[in-house]
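Input sequence (193 aa), recorded before submission:
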Amino acid sequence: KSVGLTRQASANEELCKLKYESKKQSIGYDVKNNYYALLQSKVMARVASDNLKSVESLLNSTRERQKLGMATDLDVMGVEVEYDRFKSEVVKANHQAEIAIMSLSNLIGKQISESVNLEESVAVIPEIVYSSYDECKDKAISNRLEIKQAEAQKEIASATAGYAYSEFWPSLIGTASYDLQDSVFFPQQKAGR
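Predicted structure, token format:
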């Protein structure tokens, strides 16, 4: 029985360790994907905004040329269509950036309403600056509930293993009893004789 409990506890402990490492790897991968997706979405939002400014400038110059008779109404409408298309691209890029921020916030263990701002290669989370991907990943691992649960399971498995091993330790069992036969207490019988 004891050998079986020991093997079971050891296997349970090993399983918990593997789950723990697997979860760390999974979170690391997810954080890396979301970290770079956020960087990319920020850049795409900036590019879309720059494109919109360029098209807006083109629209203004085309309208000026139309006033001078150098451009037709069709030229202006073509640029206006492009302007509207780029305007919707800016909105779309900003929404993608917001989704990426919420996703990374969730992975790091922050509330979705808390902001995660990335400036160049530095991830800024309220009052905490992460200068690298590794720092960001380490923070996510330390804050994630799944990791804390896995750590608790690992501790339980260790305790179970200790309990199983305890059956091999020596034990001391003591018993005591008292027996009353008559209504006379034994020491009093000797005194009366």
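Checked by second reader. Confidence is low (pLDDT under 50) at residues 122-126.
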